[in-house]
C-alpha cells in the first residue's frame, strides 16, 4: 500500500511538471520503476498505460484553458502514435545506442531555447507563422519512436524543437504536445500489449500513476495559462539542458575522464544554480516589463500570460 501511495505522489508530481513544461512524466515515472527492479520493457509498458489516462485528462484541461494549437496536434498525433507502436516492438534493440546521440541533439536545442528567450529584446515576444507540416510529421515520428523505446521522449524531443522555432507560443507548444501524446500513448500501449501481453505489467502501479496524474492535469494546464511565455520557455529549456547533461555525464566514456564522483555532482550542482539564476532573472525582467507597461491605476498582474 505504501508503494502505491508513493507511486500516486510520483504520478502527481510528474504530471505537474509534464503538463506545465511539456515533458518529464515518462522520464520521472520510468526512473522510479526501474529503481524498484522492473524490466525496461515492463517499465515502459506500465508508464504508457498510465499515460493513456493522464494525457487524456491533460488534453481536456489544456483545451479548457485554450492552450492547444490543433493544427500541430493534427500533424503530429497520428505519425507519433504509429511510430510509438513500432518502437514498442524494438525496445530491447536500440534504446541504449540512441540515447547519447539524442541527448546531444536535445542539449543543443535546450541551449538554443534558453539563449533565444533570454535575449529577446521585446517586452512581449511575438509568435507568428506556422511550422511546416513536412517538418512536424518527421518530428512526430522520431519523438514517438524515442518515447516508446526510452519510456519517455515525446515531450523532450517535441517540446524544445517547437519552442526553438519561435513560431508557436510556449503555452500552445506545451498544450499541443501534451494533447497529441494521448495518441502516442495509445500506440505504444497497443504495441507493448501485443508484444508482451499483460506479463510483467503491474496494473496496481498503472492505476496509482494514473490517479496521481489525473489529479495534477488541470492544475498544470492552469499554470501554463497563467505564466508568461519567457518564464515557461526558460523553465522548459533549463530542464532539457539539465536532464541531458546528466545523461551524458553518466556515460561510461565520460565517467572514465571525470576525476571522481564529486566532479559529476559539482557539474550538475553548478548547472542547477545557473538554471535557478536564469529563472530569477527572467521573472524579475517580466516584473519590470509589466510594471513599465502598466498605467498608475492598473492593478498588478505581472506574471499573467496575456
UniProtKB/TrEMBL annotation:
Keywords: Cell membrane, Membrane, Transmembrane, Transmembrane helix. It comes from the Bacteria. InterPro entries: TM_pro_TauE-like, TSUP/Inactive_protease-like. The keyword Cell membrane applies. It is a multi-pass membrane protein. The chain crosses the membrane at residues 29-50, 70-91, 97-119, 131-154, 203-224, 231-251, 263-283. It is found in: Cell membrane; Membrane. It holds the Pfam family TauE. Belongs to the 4-toluene sulfonate uptake permease (TSUP) (TC 2.A.102) family. This is Probable membrane transporter protein. It comes from Kocuria carniphila.
Amino acid at each position: 500500500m505504501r508503494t502505491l501511495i508513493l507511486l500516486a505522489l510520483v504520478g502527481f508530481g510528474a504530471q505537474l511538471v509534464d503538463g506545465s513544461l511539456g515533458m518529464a512524466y515518462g522520464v520521472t515515472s520510468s526512473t522510479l520503476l526501474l529503481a524498484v527492479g522492473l524490466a525496461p520493457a515492463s517499465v515502459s509498458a506500465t508508464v504508457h498505460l498510465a499515460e493513456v489516462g493522464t494525457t487524456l485528462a491533460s488534453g481536456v484541461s489544456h483545451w479548457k484553458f485554450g492552450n492547444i494549437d490543433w493544427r500541430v496536434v493534427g500533424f503530429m498525433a497520428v505519425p507519433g502514435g504509429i511510430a510509438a507502436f513500432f518502437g514498442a516492438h524494438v525496445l530491447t534493440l536500440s534504446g541504449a545506442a540512441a540515447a547519447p546521440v539524442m541527448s546531444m541533439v536535445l542539449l543543443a536545442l535546450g541551449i538554443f531555447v534558453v539563449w533565444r528567450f533570454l535575449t529577446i529584446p521585446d517586452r512581449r515576444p511575438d509568435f507568428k507563422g506556422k511550422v511546416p507540416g513536412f517538418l512536424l510529421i518527421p518530428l512526430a515520428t522520431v519523438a514517438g519512436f524515442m518515447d516508446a523505446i526510452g519510456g519517455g521522449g515525446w515531450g523532450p524531443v517535441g517540446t524544445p524543437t517547437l519552442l526553438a522555432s519561435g513560431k508557436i507560443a510556449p503555452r500552445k507548444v506545451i498544450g499541443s504536445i501534451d494533447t497529441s501524446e494521448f495518441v502516442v500513448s495509445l500506440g505504444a500501449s497497443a504495441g507493448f500489449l501485443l508484444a508482451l501481453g499483460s506479463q510483467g505489467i503491474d496494473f496496481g502501479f498503472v492505476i496509482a500513476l494514473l490517479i496521481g496524474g489525473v489529479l495534477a492535469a488541470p492544475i498544470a494546464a492552469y499554470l501554463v495559462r497563467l505564466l508568461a511565455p519567457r518564464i515557461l520557455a526558460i523553465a522548459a529549456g533549463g530542464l532539457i539542458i539539465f536532464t541531458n547533461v546528466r545523461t551524458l555525464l553518466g556515460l561510461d566514456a565520460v565517467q572514465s575522464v571525470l576525476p571522481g564522483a564529486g566532479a559529476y555532482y559539482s557539474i550538475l550542482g553548478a548547472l542547477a544554480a545557473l538554471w535557478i539564476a536564469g529563472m530569477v532573472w527572467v521573472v524579475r525582467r517580466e516584473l519590470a516589463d509589466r510594471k513599465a507597461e502598466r498605467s498608475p491605476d492598473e492593478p498588478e498582474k505581472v506574471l499573467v500570460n496575456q
